Request: fold
Amino acid sequence: MIAEITQQNSASTLLNDYISKICAQGFSGDTDASYATRIVTATDNSIYQEIPQAVIYPKNSKDVQVAMQVASLDPFLSLSFGPRGGGTGTNGQSLTPGIVIDLSRYMREILEINEKEGWVRVQTGVIKDQLNDFLRPYGFFFAPDLSTSNRATIGGMINTDASGQGSLVYGKTSDHVLELKTILVDGTELNTNKLELEKAELLAEQTNRVGEVYKTVLTSCRENRELVLKKFPRLNRFLTGYDLENVFDNEMKTFDLSRVITGSEGSLGIVTEAKLNVTRIQPFKTLINIKYDSFESALRNSPFLVAANATSVETVDSKVLNLAKQDIIWHSVSDLISDIPGVDVQGLNMVEFNGETPGEIEGKVSSLCSQLDQLIANQEAGVVGYQLTNDKAEILKIYAMRKKAVGLLGNTKGKQKPLAFAEDTAVPPENLADFILEFRALLDSKGLHYGMFGHVDAGVLHVRPALDMCDPEQEKLLREISDQVVALTAKYRGLMWGEHGKGYRSEYGPEFFGDKLFTELRKIKSAFDKNNRLNPGKICTPLESNDSLVSVDGQKRAWFDRAINIEVKESFENAMNCNGNGLCFNYDEASPMCPSYKVTKDRRHSPKGRASLIREWFRLQEEQGVDLLSSEKTLIEKENDTTWWERFRNNRKKQQGIYDFSHEVKESMDECLACKACTTACPIKVDVPSFRARFLNLYYSKYNRPLKDHLVANVEQTTPLMAKLPRLTNFVVNFAPVKSALKNIVGYVDTPTLSVPTLASRTKNDFKYDEAKLAALSKEQMSDIIFIVQDPFTSFYEAELVEAFMQLITKLGKKPVLLPFVPNGKAQHVKGFLKEFKSTAKSANEFLSRIASYGRPLVGLDASLVLCYRDEYLKILNKDKLAFEVHLAHEWLSNQDWNSVGKLSNTNGHSVVKLLSHCTETSAMPESKTVWKNIFKQLGVELHTPATGCCGMAGTYGHETDHQENSRSLYEMSWQTHTTNMENETVLATGFSCRCQVKRYENKKPMHPIEYIAKNI
Reply:
């Protein structure tokens, strides 16, 4: 043990010295050796987990060069490195026990575009969708189309030679690489591009690192050309790791070293910049969704579809389709993949045609449709129906569903989850159906469930068997299946890694390459990295090295998870099930998905990061003998066993810097805006706000809470009291000394102003809740009653909105009844006061259940609080269903007869009326925008509903002093472009916090759509 501790301390000292040295030498990026960051970076979308020593985040090529130059000095020669991009690989390519060089945080600059020559130069942290958004106005796109395109970096695509949909036409990433800038392990800058063979030979004669590299690769590939051509099948998805074949053109007149680097998984150097060719966008598209009676029928029919000269043919099986139907994504595609009465659709092929003109594709489409009609009429080939669309937006929705298939499979119920480990085999397309039937027979023989999807046009199918990796016996199956799939793939003249690279499957390299060619790979590795310091163990090891390759038996995430109590895992299933697919890294600023990650670009502040941290926290608590569930139960049902003195002493230890991993988890949770986008947008439904609240509840049983948390948690108790003297309250909170104290002592800014006059003074007695009067109403009179459920924000800070809603209800021929204010408890939940929240929820449940017995609608105005009844109440009260249901205003209004109220007259005279939606509402109720558009359409107004992310306020988050910079950045990122023209446009917003945020930065508050309708009807 003493020797082990000494070794750890020595390694830590060396690491700290290295980080200090690179910073002294001009490294301008970030460095992070915290345990939280290392844990978050220890996983990707694979089954493996490898904790690195540290993570560095360079800002440019010079930073990478400095990092490598310093690493080549004594005493740092023992350090190893692994480059990382999006971190969504399925085979652990970017996992390393050394230092991670993460290029995704800063290196996102698009450096140059040449429209005339059709190329673009980028830093390799640029995200695929980011690049295409940049290229679209120029009429170009970067062709390789990945399912992870909204978070995959160009560097990651280069290092795995990614391809994706449409590869028969567009090829792989390597087919689009024109030049690369690569930093070698000693800091040498290597610039590569296609050269005349004579020029390459001249470079090979140089007596330096570049010359050594060129000489080795030239010699190896030239002397073994015949063997390479004989050994490997001519597959569209041909992926060797180091591409020994395509360094030469067919005539061997040119040589391109970039082809060896592309697909090398960071084991040869760190690619920092790339010059890429780009493809002209073909403006006309048609997508045909063909439905089948079985998945086998879909597979066997694919060659027929490829023969129709389609751009791409994609497929999904019934398991993926059924999972999609349970996901938020289905509402956007259900009309495009409609059910067939009496037919159980078991497979789907998506066939796309592209063209410069409609005429280019009309003939192909009509010919295929005629043949499909004939197949359906004759009940042949298993075709049971098809749907066609030419609408680009609809086509994108279909592909969004297909792209989400990766994550959707991870949402399979039960402990056994479909896993990626032998799932991107590539065989000749004509062999695919037979290959898959044998593959299925193999899995069926072991009693396993599985899902399938992929690129049938290229012979690549993603097959994901469902295993519980916490079960040691099922872990053994992973090895058995992997070995058997290797043999099966060889039988059908295919490759084990057709798309997602080798990673931990590198051990199968010798089997596919043979001893001779694998030795050539090792020679190339030696020329680039003779001491095996770059992503060691991946693809191959240097020729003179005794180091081992990584193995499919490598350390898995489940090894860590097994240490967690089974009851804890089941109770926190929404955190444990995260499979690392990384959809929460979505770069799209108009997406509501995880605003905290978008603004910080720190993966600790993402749903995946937080799930990783809380899992490790569970493990460490278990290691320390803490019974989490028992402690939680005590905290919710009884008093905290920890005395204030013990909490004070713990706080002192925290201030003194005594380490507790809980603080790192807490720091991550503090940045969460509790917007709940992860609960729906994430295919696994990782629910951060739920496990965050539970963590905070436990954390603050040990440490003292800040004053601001108590103020927020009691807002529903204090606000009604303050509203009794609103003018005095407003004067006090806006009094300069008080504002200063709130900011500097409490930590809150921009406190909203209470409504004057108050809601109580605006409301007629006839509209107030009176149980005796209600009991006296006839059945006919009761049929017009609409109960309004109050919330603290609109009732006390926007009384005019509640008043407008009551007026609108009256104009619609109904009678509004304002229920007495009953606390909801949302703020208590957000801050982790779960005992208090449970008490509040019980009271509200009793009251609203009694009101529900009248059989009339209950309607609320604030999305976050209304949705709290539907989600958090069920969990804290341990119920499957409540006796009451509170509707949001648009849900109730959508069923009303608007003919009786006439049309809207826009008093502002603005031609544009724009609605910006609350992010929680957008995530949980994606149809809400459409509902509002339909309501306004009936009232004679076209409502614009642009896509927006989070406004940055999110309840109290935007009021907290510590979050001011991030709050403003989020507003500028997504909302500001839609609010800067409020003098000429009518801007509406459904969220109270959103309206406050706009008022704060634009000095003008948008109306709620209800206010607008009530005012102008």
User: Anything to note?
Assistant: The chain has 48 helices and 26 strands.
